[in-house]
Amino acid sequence: ISFLTDHPLSAMASGIKPQVEQGDSDLVVEDDKMYRNPTEVKMSQIVLPCHANHRKELSVGQLLKWMDCTACLSAERHAGCSCVTASMDDIHFERTIGVGQVVNIKAKVNRAFNSSMEVGIEVSCEDLYSNQQWKVCHAFATFVARSTRAEKICLKPLVPCTHKEQLEYSMAAERRRMRLLHIDIMKDLLSNKTFQWSPSEEGQNEQLTVPTEKTRVESVELVLPPHANHQVNTFGGQIMAWMENVATIAASRLCNAHPTLRTIDMFHFRGPSQVGDRLVLKAIVNNTFKNSMEVGVCAEAYQGEESQRHINSAFMMFEVLDEDGKPCPLPPIRPEPLDGSRRYQEAIARKKIRLDRKYIISCKQTEVPLSVPWDQSNQVYLSYNNVFALKMLAARTKWTLSSEKNNVRLYTLEENQTLCFRIESEVNVPAARAFLLLSDLCCRPEWDKLYKQCELIIQVNDDDFIYHVLTPSVSEGGKVQDFILLASRRPPCNSGDPYVIALRSVTLPTHPPTEDFNRGEMLCAGFIIYEVSKSVSKISYYNQTNPGVLPYISTDIAGLSSSFCYTFHSCSQYLLENRTRHSVLSDTEI
Ligand code: COA
Ligand code: ADP
């Protein structure tokens, strides 16, 4: 057994076998080679009464400190220098951890970008007496490498080795995109009038509502050396713990009980804090829902006479559990005028966004039902899901070559009762050009006879487009099929990454199914384009079939025809003829 040293992409191309994890061992065996991720850092802590709350459960603040510390050490292992927490994505806590149980935290760098890295963190708990283990949560944090000098650090690239690492590496680019858009998305959505809902419309009885003023908390902390790293920067985990502390007080004041923290929204450390800073932490309940409440917290720092710097804002969802662990109903609140009413409405918007994000992002592959209607508030998550599903499909390893003709190969994959196909060939067209031409779905009728007509309905942004596509009837004399497709395109994030054009059906409230057509559904399809050389690209078209799509390809898959080869041939002809033609879609990005 030797250690894996191959370049990841060549390993991926050679069809690496799925990894075999040996229990909780750090060693992964893949392709008969044994491997340990060099950035992996583990921490185990026994939960003592001093780490726990009144319910004898580990306080989330303490857990956040341990998670941040483990992740920071992993980031520093890759960076070789000191790192600071830039952001933490949504964390959903699946269970609480009791005194006497052991918390196991595992962190590893998924990808290094320029000066920042994504670190994946997994938290589980272990009961030493019953020998049982449970998953508590998993999170993604971004750390930025900082040098003592002013200039920005350029990190060495991370080379993913195992199949799982390659997937995380690829998805980290998608998550980063979503993270960097987050602040703008929230701003846009909070100003979106469709979410506006006034408390008075609820017809609430004033007597039964709790004034939010009752829940307001303001607390100060002095940052001392134990709260900071050797470069005197305050640990992000420490700030999160202080924020969680005031949020818990605000939540307790509303329910007069011990609340349980369920979810923390994605948040971002806007600016650094150092030893000697006074941190002012403010929290208030923004809104209550049937069984949960949103508490908002903001952290500001100052030293001496200087004005306060806004360091962080976070939104946390709490529940109150009864003796059986079931969430109890919470009283409605009466927000204060102005800021209170605004935050009340913003909490409603955040609830919808949080649900979309949790549901759409956490769904595996194509499990997101097509009935999730596309809208402005979930478009980033549907786009993420679209690209994620295609990358997952492309990363499957058990493809079998079904037929080959004129250098066009048709592969199939049968897994979990789904049938997928992949058509692949090389074309004498630069990858960037092929990407641009293929992303413009309106041109597809020029080379694909199955695309009778294609109309662009919405250009969402530079990367996402929604089309109405007509395809011929699958049965003689039957109705023409139509599809509403979301096309999400991504140029490479780094050299070695492919160009991606992902396609999936979406439900568009403005375009319901009509009598004239049979509405078809496409679960997951699209192109992955690799640069083979400056002038040659390898194009793979993937499709996860369902009854709406299968009839178009079934005779090819059964080996009864080779129309796939004909279609691919016309596709390459089209690309060759249009090597220099300007596309409808802007190519400024490329
Ligand atoms: N989430 C994730 N990464 C983010 C981010 C966010 N919300 N905002 C910026 N970044 C990343 C950028 O993508 C960039 O990554 P790259 O170099 O790999 O491309 C990196 O941070 C630096 O971005 P840049 O635009 O050069 O700097 P900035 O002025 O936006 O500063 C921080 C970003 C995070 C360095 C800055 O806000 C900061 O110092 N925050 C406090 C960090 C800290 O001290 N944390 C501990 C607790 S206070
Ligand atoms: P905004 O004040 O615009 O709502 P911030 O980012 O400043 O946004 O604050 C985030 C959250 O922190 C608010 O939604 C609120 O719940 C809480 N918060 C902010 N300021 C105060 C305050 N003065 N007192 C109590 N809680 C506050």
Quick recap:
Helices cover 24% and strands 31% of the residues. With 590 residues, the protein is an alpha+beta fold.
Describe the protein's architecture and organization.
- Helix 2 runs antiparallel to helix 4 (236-255).
- The longest helix has 28 residues, at 163-190.
- The strands form five sheets. Strands 19, 20, 21, 22, 23, 24, 25, 26, 27 and 28 form a ten-stranded mixed beta sheet that branches. The protein has a six-stranded antiparallel beta sheet with strand order 5-8-9-10-6-14.
- Helices cover 24% and strands 31% of the residues.
- By secondary structure, the protein is α+β, with helices and mostly antiparallel strands.
- The site of coenzyme A has 24 residues, from strand 6, strand 10, helix 3 and helix 4.
- GO terms for molecular function: carboxylic ester hydrolase activity; lipid binding; long-chain fatty acyl-CoA hydrolase activity.
- This is Acyl-coenzyme A thioesterase 11.
- It is an enzyme of class 3 (hydrolase).
